[in-house]
C-alpha cells in the first residue's frame, strides 16, 4: 500500500515537471516569434527609408527641367505680347481717352419764338458732362472735331440755327404741310447735322432763327415723336 502511494506521488511529480517544461517551451517560442517579427519590421522600415531617400535625391535632378519648361512658357507669352504691341498702335492714357458724347430731348411740347435758345431738358446720355440741360448749351470739355445732330418736330414752318460761340454755323429750314380742311395735323420733323472743329470751352447750342415767325409756334415732343439734340467727339 505504501509502495503504491509513493508511486502515485512520483507520477504526479513527473506530470508537473512535464507541464512546466511545456509552458517554458511555449514562452521561448513566443519570444523567438516576437524577435523575428521585430527583425522583419526593422527590415521593412529600412527598405521604406531607402525608397524615400532615393525619391528625395531624384527631385533635384527634375527641378531644372521644370524650371526650363516654365522659362520657355514665359518666353512664349512675352513674344506674343511683343507681337501684339508691334501690330496694335499704342493707345492714349485713360485721361485722354475720356468719351465726350451727349443725347437730349424735350420732355414735352413747348412754345417757341424767334431767337429762342432751345432747351432739351432730358438727357439719357451725357458722357463728359459737356451738355447742360438747364440752359440747353453744350460746353466742349476738350478740343476736337465734333459731330452735332438734331431733329425738330415743329408746327408750320421753322428755321433752326446751330450756334457756335455766338455765331450761326448752319441753319435748317422746314415747312410742314398745311391741310386746309384741318383733318391732317400740320407738324413735321426735320433733321440736321454738322461737323464742327471746337476748342475747349466753346459753347454750342440750337436757337430759333430771327425769321422763325412772329407768332409763337409749338415744338412738339411726345411718345409719338421727340425733338432731340445730340453730339459726340470724333477725335
From TrEMBL:
InterPro entries: C1q_dom, Cerebellin_Synaptic_Org, Tumour_necrosis_fac-like_dom
Intracellular or extracellular location(s): Secreted
A GO-annotated cellular component: extracellular region
A Pfam cross-reference name: C1q
Ranges where the C1q domain occurs: 95-235
Signal peptide coordinates: 1-19
Alphabetic keyword roster: Secreted, Signal
Main location: secreted
Gene3D superfamilies according to UniProt: 2.60.120.40
Domain of life: Eukaryota
PANTHER family: C1Q-RELATED FACTOR (PTHR22923:SF64), CEREBELLIN-RELATED (PTHR22923)
Protein's name according to its UniProt entry: Collagen alpha-2(VIII) chain-like isoform X1
Organism annotation: Crassostrea virginica
Amino acid at each position: 500500500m505504501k509502495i503504491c502511494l509513493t508511486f502515485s506521488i512520483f507520477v504526479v511529480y513527473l506530470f508537473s515537471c512535464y507541464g512546466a517544461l511545456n509552458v517554458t517551451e511555449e514562452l521561448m517560442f513566443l519570444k523567438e516569434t516576437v524577435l523575428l517579427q521585430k527583425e522583419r519590421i526593422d527590415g521593412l522600415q529600412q527598405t521604406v527609408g531607402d525608397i524615400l531617400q532615393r525619391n528625395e535625391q531624384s527631385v533635384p535632378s527634375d527641378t531644372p527641367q521644370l524650371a526650363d519648361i516654365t522659362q520657355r512658357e514665359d518666353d512664349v507669352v512675352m513674344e506674343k505680347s511683343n507681337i501684339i504691341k508691334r501690330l496694335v498702335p499704342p493707345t492714349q492714357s485713360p485721361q485722354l481717352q475720356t468719351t465726350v458724347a451727349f443725347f437730349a430731348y424735350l420732355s414735352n411740347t413747348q412754345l417757341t419764338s424767334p431767337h429762342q435758345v432751345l432747351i432739351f431738358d432730358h438727357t439719357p446720355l451725357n458722357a463728359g458732362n459737356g451738355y447742360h440741360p438747364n440752359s440747353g448749351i453744350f460746353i466742349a470739355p476738350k478740343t476736337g472735331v465734333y459731330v452735332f445732330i438734331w431733329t425738330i418736330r415743329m408746327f408750320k414752318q421753322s428755321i433752326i440755327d446751330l450756334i457756335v460761340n455766338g455765331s450761326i454755323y448752319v441753319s435748317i429750314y422746314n415747312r410742314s404741310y398745311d391741310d386746309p380742311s384741318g383733318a391732317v395735323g400740320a407738324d413735321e420733323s426735320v433733321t440736321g447735322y454738322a461737323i464742327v472743329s471746337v476748342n475747349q470751352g466753346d459753347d454750342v447750342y440750337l436757337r430759333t432763327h430771327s425769321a422763325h415767325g412772329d407768332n409763337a409756334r409749338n415744338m412738339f415732343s411726345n411718345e409719338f415723336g421727340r425733338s432731340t439734340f445730340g453730339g459726340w467727339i470724333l477725335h
